[in-house]
Amino acid sequence: MSDIRIGISGWRYTPWRKDFYPQGLPQNSELAFASRAVNSIEINGSFYSLQTPLRYQQWRDDTPEDFVFSVKGPRFITHVRRLKDIEEPLANFFASGLLLLGKKLGPILWQFPPNMKFDEERFSRFLELLPRDRKAARDCARHCAERLQGNGGTDIRGNARLRHAVEIRHESFLCEAFVQLLRKHRVALVVADSAGKWPYVEDVTADFVYMRLHGDVELYSSGYTARALRRWKQRIEKWSQGSQPDDAHLIVERQPHRRASRDIYCYFDNDQKVHAPFDARRLLEKLELAGELVTEPGVEPEVAL
Fold it and tell me: What residues contact residue 282 under an 8 Å CB cut-off, 6+ apart?
C-alpha cells in the first residue's frame, strides 16, 4: 500500500503564533503541536546550516511514533559549491545527525537555484555520490571534517535505504537526458507548484513522488482553494496507485514503469500568510488521512507542554 505523507515545510514561523499555534504555547513545543496536525514535516533549517546530532534526536523524540521527516540538503552544496568539490561537504551533512532520526527519516530534498543550468556530467557525478542506504551514508560521513569526527551523528544501526528528490528551477533541465539520469539513479523529480515562476513538471522518475506546493497564485503567500485541493487530491490518488494523471505535464512522454503503488510526500510551503498548515490539514482530510490528528489549532496535543 502507498504511504501518503502530507505536511509543511518548516514549522517555526513567527506569524503562525496565536494563529495556527495556540496563544501561550511555548516555542519549544511547536514541533510537538505541528506534528499532531500533519503526518510529515520538511526540515528546512538543514538547508541554511548544518544541524547537530542533539537537535535531530530532539526532533525525533518530540514527534509521534509514526511520523516522518524529510530533510533539505545544504545550500552550501547546491548553491555555493554548485556541485563542485562537494565530497567533504556531503560527508559533513551525513555526519551532522540526520541518520539519528531513525525510522522517521524520509526523503532528502536537494533544491537548486534558478540560475543553475543543467550540466549532465556534473549532475551525473552528484547522483553517483549520493548514498542509497544508511550504511553508505555512514561510510560517506567518515570523510567529514575533523571538527565533526566522533560527534555521534552516525551512531545508529540498520541499513534502511535512503531516498533523494531534486527540485529544479531552470528551464535547461527540461530535457530527456535529465529525466533519464534521474530514472537511472531512482531519484524523484519534485513536482513544484510555484505560481508559474519556475518550471512545473510531473515526470515520475522514482518509486515515490515528492511535491512542494509554494502557492498557485502568489508565490509563498496564496492559499489553495477547495477546488485546487480537490485537484491535488485527484493527482495524489493517481500517483499513489502507481499511474499518473492523464493530463500530466511531462518532459518525456514515455510512461514510467507501472507499479502497484507509489509513496507520496507533499509539503505546503505557502507559509507567509499562515496558509500552509491549514491547507495541509484540509488536504489530509480530503484524503481521509486525518485520523486522530489535531483537528483544531486551539486544541492542545496529547503531549506535555
Answer: 224, 226, 229
Q: From CA 72, how far away is CA 58, in angstroms rounded?
A: 17
C-alpha 104/C-alpha 61 separation (Å) is 10
Q: What is the reported pTM? A: 0.94
Within 10 angstroms of residue 291's Cβ, the number of other Cβ atoms is 10
Grid cell listed for 34: 505541528
Look up the CATH superfamily of 4-286.
Protein of unknown function UPF0759 (3.20.20.410)
Tell me how far apart the alpha carbons of residues 107 and 61 are, in angstroms, rounded to a whole number: 19
Rounded distance, CA 55 to CA 115, Å? Answer: 32
**Cα torsion for 187, 217, 12, 230, to the nearest 10°?**
-70
Contact 83, 125 (CB under 8 A): yes
Domain residue ranges of the chain, discontinuous segments joined by +: 4-286
Decide the pairing of beta strands 188-189 and 208-213. unpaired
Contacts 24+ apart (CB under 8 A), 176-184: 176/251, 176/252, 177/118, 177/120, 178/118, 178/120, 178/123, 178/251, 179/203, 179/205, 179/251, 179/252, 180/252, 181/120, 181/123, 181/124, 181/127, 182/127, 182/206, 183/256, 184/127
pLDDT for the residue numbered 90:
98
Q: Could you report the average pLDDT of every consecutive run of 10 residues in the chain (305 residues)? A: 96 94 94 96 98 98 97 98 98 98 98 98 98 98 98 95 98 98 98 95 97 92 94 97 95 85 97 93 94 46 36
Give, as one character, the DSSP assignment of residue 164.
Answer: E
pLDDT at 300: 45
Q: What is the DSSP string of 23-77?
A: TT--GGGHHHHHTTTSSEEEE-HHHHS---HHHHHHHHHTS-TT-EEEEEPPHII
